[in-house]
Amino acid sequence: MIKLSLVLSLAAALLSAESTPPEALLVLAKGDHTLAIVDPVSFKVIARFPSGPDPHEVIASADGHYAYISNYGGGAYNTLTVVDIAAQKSLPAIDLGALRGPHGLVFAGGKVWFTAEAAKVIGSYDPAARTVDLVIGTGQNRTHMIWLSEDLKRIITSNVSSATMTIIDKSAGGRGRGPGPGGPPPGAPDGRGGRGGPMGPPGGDWDDTVIPVGRGAEGFDVSPDGKEIWAANAQDGTISIVDLAGKKVSQTLAANVASANRLKFTPDGKLVLVSMLGAPDVAVFDAAGRKEVKRVKIGRGAAGIQMQPGGSRAFVACTPDDYVAIIDLKTLEVTGHIDAGKQPDGLAWAVRR
Question: Which residue has the higher pLDDT, 2 or 76?
């Protein structure tokens, strides 16, 4: 009788388990040290996993199977936590050695690109070869967030304490094989019947341009047309607009965004959203008109911003309020909240392919 009850209990648990949807919102909860997988239709948390110490940013692999989490600690930690979000299980963490303080993350070309703030560098980790295959020094203080062009020939970082942006361009004529397909974590199937193989290092030289912006430059984004960087300066409360062709600041907006944390363009490039850690609203700007159009009340402060593909919604991590606010991008109104853990911060979107 006891064995039958146990079997029935296990069967019920299996039936009630929810699989990861083809598209999912990933939410880091710094207070709980967890990663939540959220169904973007029901806005329900369907699974949680340990995120490692002091999780700040999260990114999904291109195939939507894996999540990589930066364990920051202001330079105290040197790991990336890995979660198989498709199979819903934790995997061994990636040890970055001397590259301490990983923070900003991008997944591109089958690699995990990251900043290492305490080491003043950006790096590239190859999951198939299980190695860091590229390190580029910035020489700037608190190299924090990172952006990569689709062709992998341009890298942009924000350097908070140096009040600069760094543009790093691949030198013309640089040799070396480009990144190959793939992107599974160590030991995972590579989708070609194998367990992953070495992909040649990026090779060639890189040229960097350091551009002075405002104090506390942290959150930034590149316009969808690739022509501008918008950088939010937390201490000055301004936004620096950088002309990428000329590699210089073309305009500084008196934006009243003191304590700015993240800045994101909407997918159509028409609006720019800025979250502030110490403000009760998200500032919304008209990108073409260079002017504020609205302040959306969200709580007591906000950090991470994630745009839903297609541009219908923005998700904003309201860290002091322990929820993620859902903003309708047509009405610019909050339409709901997601309870995904204490002190939500980094957000990402995973699409299974």
Answer: 76
pLDDT average, residue stretch 164-178: 75
Instruction: Let me know: does 298 contact 318? Beta carbons within 8 Å.
Output: yes
- Nearest in space to 184 (alpha carbons), one of 193, 194, 196, 192: 196
- The CA distance from 323 to 317, in Å, is 6
Q: What are 299-340's pLDDT values in tens digits?
A: 999 999 999 999 999 999 999 999 999 999 999 999 999 999
- Please answer whether residues 77 and 125 qualify as being in contact, where contact means their C-beta atoms are separated by less than 8 angstroms: no
How far apart are alpha carbons 209 and 34 in whole angstroms?
Answer: 37
Query: Given this model, what pLDDT does residue 329 score?
Result: 98
**Cα–Cα dist 142/135, whole Å:** 16
pLDDT tens track for 40-99: 999 999 999 999 999 999 999 999 999 999 999 999 999 999 999 999 999 999 999 999
Whole-number pLDDT of residue 66: 98
Which residues neighbour 327 within 8 Å (Cβ) at sequence distance 6 or greater?
Answer: 273, 282, 296, 298, 313, 314, 315, 316, 333, 334, 335
Say if strands 111-116 and 102-108 run parallel, antiparallel, or are unpaired.
antiparallel
* Band (223; pLDDT cuts 50, 70, 90): very high
More confident residue, 315 or 186: 315
Burial class (CB in 10 A: 0-12, 13-18, 19+), 259: middle
Q: Say which amino acid occupies 191.
A: G
- What is the rounded CA–CA span in Å between residue 129 and residue 112? 12
Closest CA to 141 of 166, 118, 124, 157: 118
**Edge-to-edge strands of the sheet including 121-126?**
102-108, 111-116, 121-126, 131-137
SS3 277: coil
Partner residues linked to 276 by β-bridges: 260
Write out the DSSP string of 23-74: EEEEEEETTTTEEEEE-TTT--EEEEEE--SSEEEEEE-TTSSEEEEEE-GG
Q: Give the whole-angstrom CA distance, residue 244 versus residue 195.
A: 40
**Rounded Cα gap, residues 352 and 19, in angstroms:** 12
